[in-house]
Every structure is written in structure tokens, then in C-alpha cells.
Write a structure and sequence with these properties.
single chain, Glutaredoxin, five-stranded mixed sheet, four-stranded mixed sheet, 11 helices, 22 strands, 24% strand
Length: 451
């Protein structure tokens, strides 16, 4: 979170997202009712204990089967080249009066593309045009629908039973849709395993061994969820350049329990954003992810644990981290100079705003013994190095382990916000902390005028 006061502007991190960011995450996915999962979610009262993992299963009886991805940012596709696609197939057992509906997922709503009455043998066909990969819902009444990820030019063929469109027997012409179906089948297996644990609990009510049984069930459920996350990571890696990754990033294991936590695994969101924004910059879904990632960079917690504060007069701990070329650079290599040790990141606006001032002061005082040692808290090397180039700050030392909130310097220096800096003397002792703008210049004038 970036805050402003009379003296400066900083980006502060806390242990959780701001409430509005949490709401933004929840907007991504809407889960429809499903009797199977509703029973699971309403019959596990023993799990409300000490923030245990499975207490999240008690949120509400909503479905885990099908996701409708919705977004809050709408863009015009005027000027994009649109290309035709077809969705056809056969619905076995379709009766008289049944009709099949195709709807496109748009920001916060579903837009009807067309509806058809299947022929006597259940066959149907839809034709439309899109400019880039888009999500559609194929349905035949109520909650009986299939989520499709359609690419321009796709010729998708579907075979399914009248009451089982969400579980088709065959889908050809769309590997992206099949990837989502494979994920959903794995997800259903997880729900089945959790149902069995629920039954074991229900069968044990009244037993004097119930506390022991509860602990055992908790451990088993935690293992099930952990294994599912590992498998989901594989799905994500296999679909890193596909819109399927947006579908996966917004899944919940159960309502209230994100499959991928942006606060703990931001790199997964950064990678998807980088890949998809380069491919489909005009897609509303991709633009929404891009907007979310920009907010994530400013809101994610770095943690507040510290090993102790560093004050004026203290010897600043040495820093030894890789530079942009991969070679390790040590802060102590600058011993003998007045050094500004500056913690920053490419995603931090106030950090970037201070860089022109650092360039100006470096030009004035470098020949008199002033140097700068910048430590980046970025996670992607290309963003870090691009910021160095754009801000014209490549003349001094730059280091980063590209571990973001897990960087060793976060805990060692007790960092809770950036920009943060330490001005150290020629022996490495702290002269001043968090000087920026005119205050930094005044201190440098004072130091070098005394020489």
C-alpha cells in the first residue's frame, strides 16, 4: 500500500491484503450450486478449531464444479481482427422443447450469443466470431453447462448426455477446454476424498475417541489439499501461455480457500500476467489480470518480523547479493566511500520517483567520494533491469536475490516499507536513515563541506 504524508510517500506492506483487494480476488470466480459439494460443506462442524486448514470448508454450500470468470474492466475490441469459430456436436437424449444456449463470459455478466433447438438426433451447431481467446458457457437448462475456452478459428465438437453437458463424453478441437476438464475431474476426486473424511467423522460422532479421530482427519485432509496444489502447479506450468492459467489462478479448493494465494505465491500471478499480456493485451480478462497484478505488487505483505532495529551509529550489516550479470557484489566493496544503501523495487512508484534525485546527487558528489548501492526487492529480473535502464541508474551498484518478500534483507533489516535507505560513512556506520529529496542533499552538503 502506498501512503502519503507531508514528508514522503512510501509503499508499506502488511500481513494481509487490504479488504478491497480481497473483494477484488473474490470477484474473479462465481461457484454454482452443486448438491454433492453442498453436503460436504455443511457437515463438518468439528473443523472449526484453531484456524485449522479445513475450517475453510465451512463457508457456504456453493459449487466447486464450474467457474465463471468475471472481471471489472471492460475494453473495446474495435480494430481487432475477428475470426470465426464453430461449436457443434450431439446431445444424446435431448427431448422435445429442449434448447441449447451459448453465452460468452463478459465483465460481470453473460452475453447470449445464440440459442438452437437440437435436431431429432440431438445434433446442434453454433457459429460466431472472436478476436482473441474467450470463455463461453454451453448450457441446456439450469446448472447443466460446460465452460469452453475458444480460440479464433476453433472447430469444437462436443458429445454429451442431455443431463450431463458439464461432463461430456467427448470434446475435440479445443485442447484448452480439455485441460480445464482434466483439472475439474481431478478437483472432483479431491471433493470425493473429502466427502469420505466427512462420512468418517459423521460415523464417529458420539465416540469417546472423537478428538483423536478429528486430528487424524485433519492431517489426511491437509495432505489431500497439499497434493492437489502440487498437481495444480503442474497444470499451471503446462498452460503458462494459455488463458487456462487465468482459470486456474482463480480457483478455490473450497469456498474461502484459494488454490493459489497471491500473498504467498505472487510469482505465479506475475508470470501469467507477463506471458498473457504480451500475447493478448486487448483481452478484457488479461487486462483485468494485469490490473490486479499491479495492485498486488503494491499491496502484498512482506511480513513484519525483524531481527532488531538499526540505528544511527550502528555498523550496517554487509550485503552480498548477485548483480544483474549474476556476479556477487558486496556492500563492503565500497568501504572508503560515503554510501547510500537504498532498498527499492521496480513496482514501487515512490521509489521510481526518487531515482531522478539520486541521479542528480550522484552526478554532483560521486567524484568527491559518494556512491550508491541499490538493493531491489523485485522478483522478475527483466522488470528490475528494465527499471534500471529506464531510470538511467545503471552507473552505480545494483544487487538483488529476486526473492521479493522472502529476500534475506527483508528480515535482516526489518523492512516494512520502501523506499528505505541508510546513509553510511566510510567505515560502514549509519549516519542517517530514510533521507530523500532535499533532506538527502542537505546532509550530503554538510558531509562534504566538512572535508
Amino acid at each position: 500500500m502506498c501512503k502519503e504524508n507531508e514528508k514522503n510517500r512510501t509503499c508499506r506492506w502488511r500481513n494481509s491484503f487490504k479488504p478491497d483487494v480481497l473483494r477484488k480476488i473474490n470477484i474473479f470466480a462465481t461457484y454454482l450450486k452443486n448438491d454433492r459439494t453442498s453436503k460436504l460443506l455443511t457437515k463438518m462442524p468439528y473443523l472449526i478449531r484453531g484456524g485449522r486448514l479445513l475450517s475453510n470448508y465451512l463457508t457456504r454450500g456453493t459449487s466447486l464444479k464450474v467457474v465463471i470468470i468475471s472481471v471489472i474492466l471492460s475494453v473495446s475490441t474495435t480494430g481487432c481482427e475477428r475470426k470465426g469459430f464453430t461449436v457443434s456436436g450431439r446431445i444424446e437424449g435431448a427431448g422435445n422443447g429442449d434448447y441449447i444456449l451459448l453465452r460468452e463470459v463478459k465483465p460481470n455478466l453473460l452475453v447470449t450469443v445464440d440459442s438452437v433447438i437440437p435436431s431429432r438426433d440431438g445434433s446442434f451447431e453454433f457459429r460466431s466470431e472472436i478476436a482473441f481467446p474467450s470463455f463461453f458457457l454451453l448450457s441446456m437448462g439450469g446448472d447443466n453447462f460446460l465452460t469452453l475456452l475458444v480460440h479464433p478459428g476453433d472447430k469444437i465438437n462436443i458429445t454429451a448426455g442431455a443431463g450431463k453437458i458439464s461432463s461430456p463424453s467427448s470434446v475435440t478441437g479445443s485442447e484448452a477446454t480439455n485441460s480445464m476438464l482434466r483439472f475439474r475431474r481431478d478437483h472432483d476426486m479431491v471433493i470425493g476424498e473429502l466427502e469420505r473424511l466427512t462420512k468418517a467423522y459423521n460415523d464417529s460422532i458420539g465416540s469417546n475417541r472423537l478428538p483423536v479421530i478429528m486430528d487424524s482427519l485433519d492431517r489426511k485432509a491437509a495432505g489431500i489439499v497439499a497434493d492437489f496444489r502440487e498437481k495444480a502447479i503442474i497444470y499451471l506450468d503446462e498452460n503458462k501461455s494459455s488463458m487456462v492459467s487465468i482459470f486456474l489462478l482463480n480457483q478455490q479448493v473450497v469456498p474461502g480457500l484459494q488454490l493459489f494465494d497471491p500473498a504467498k505465491e505472487p510469482d505465479l500471478f506475475y508470470r501469467a500476467d507477463s506471458m498473457l499480456y504480451a500475447l493478448y493485451p486487448e483481452s478484457d480478462l488479461v487486462l483485468d489480470l494485469h490490473t490486479f497484478v499491479a495492485r498486488l505488487r503494491r499491496s502484498v505483505s512482506f511480513g513484519s518480523e525483524t531481527d532488531g532495529s538499526i540505528g544511527e551509529g550502528d555498523l550496517l550489516p554487509d550485503i552480498a547479493l548477485p548483480g544483474p550479470d549474476g556476479d556477487t557484489i558486496m556492500l563492503s566493496s565500497l568501504r572508503g566511500s560515503i554510501v547510500l544503501v537504498d532498498f527499492w523495487a521496480a513496482w514501487c512508484p515512490p521509489c521510481r520517483e526518487e531515482n531522478p534525485n539520486l541521479v542528480r546527487l550522484y552526478d554532483i558528489y560521486h567524484y568527491r567520494g559518494f556512491d550508491i548501492f541499490q538493493v531491489s526487492l523485485d522478483i522478475r529480473k527483466e522488470e528490475w533491469t528494465e527499471a534500471i535502464r529506464k531510470d538511467r541508474v545503471g552507473r552505480w551498484k545494483h544487487v538483488s536475490d529476486l526473492k521479493y518478500r522472502d529476500s534475506e534483507v527483508v528480515k535482516r533489516f526489518g523492512l516494512t516499507e520502501i523506499p528505505c535507505n541508510y546513509l553510511i560513512d566510510r567505515d560502514g556506520r549509519v549516519i542517517a536513515i530514510n533521507l530523500r529529496g532535499e533532506m538527502l542533499q542537505k546532509k550530503l552538503v554538510e558531509l562534504f563541506d566538512r572535508q
